[in-house]
Design a protein that fits this description.
Layout (H helix, E strand, L loop, with lengths): L1 H9 L7 E4 L2 E4 H18 L5 H18 L3 H28 L9 H25 L9 H22 L4 H19 L3 H31 L1
Helix pairs in contact: 2-3, 2-8, 3-4, 4-6, 5-6, 6-7, 7-8
């Protein structure tokens, strides 16, 4: 039984091997996970419920990639994404069932304040936790590097909660994540992730424009 299990797991060793993409070394797990992550953004822009299971699958591959380069903060982020995506999947499915389509809207000013406070306070607390446990990068990693890891972790969680609530603001949170995510991914050797973060930024701008327009339509019908 043990041998069979080892053989089964060994069949996935190729995910942690690299290939050359535009002259850059890219892990297969990083590549597949980010392709699915890009697909998730496109599907979310279209407000298709299938965006959530695609995101879960992509996060599984990115979890493998993060563990391979010892980026444990980012690995924990993928676990959170998988859990929250299950909740978001249910929320969007319910809204589509009730309204006939997934309807988007702006958050209240109170909830915007909660999102901002959660981003700042959450990043500070997660930074302290990652630093104290040496779970980010390597033992003794500088504070700024750990804080960047924490910022992406917390920002992703907040963005997904806002996305599940169908708030337009979730796109703006992704901008904040991308600004840090691009240089951090490159610094960690996940070059394809850095490229994808850049593509994310363009898609986010498109998403903002589309969801703002659709939110106005919903308000006009209310």
């Amino acid at each position: 039984m043990h041998a069979n299990t080892s053989d089964w797991l060994g069949a996935f060793d190729w995910l942690n091997t690299q290939f050359s993409l535009f002259g850059l070394p890219v892990y297969w797990s990083d590549f597949i996970g980010n392709v699915l992550a890009l697909a998730t953004v496109v599907l979310a822009l279209k407000r298709w419920v299938v965006a959530w299971p695609v995101q879960i699958l992509g996060s599984v591959f990115l979890l493998i990639a993060s563990l391979n380069v010892h980026l444990l903060g980012n690995a924990g982020r993928q676990v959170i994404i998988i859990v929250v995506a299950g909740w978001g999947w249910a929320m969007w499915g319910r809204n589509k069932h009730d309204q006939g389509e997934v309807q988007v809207r702006w958050a209240s000013w109170r909830m915007r304040a909660v999102l901002i406070a959660g981003m700042l306070v959450g990043t500070a607390l997660v930074t302290l936790l990652l630093k104290a446990t040496n779970l980010s990068f390597y033992p003794g990693a500088p504070w700024w590097l750990v804080a960047c890891d924490a910022w992406i972790f917390v920002g992703t969680l907040i963005a997904m909660v806002a996305q599940g609530r169908r708030w337009v603001e979730f796109w703006f949170v992704w901008i904040a994540v991308d600004v840090v995510g691009v240089p951090l991914a490159v610094h960690s050797g996940l070059y394809f992730s850095g490229i994808v973060y850049g593509i994310f930024f363009v898609l986010v701008l498109i998403g903002i424009r589309d969801w703002v327009k659709r939110s106005r339509t919903v308000e006009a019908m209310s």
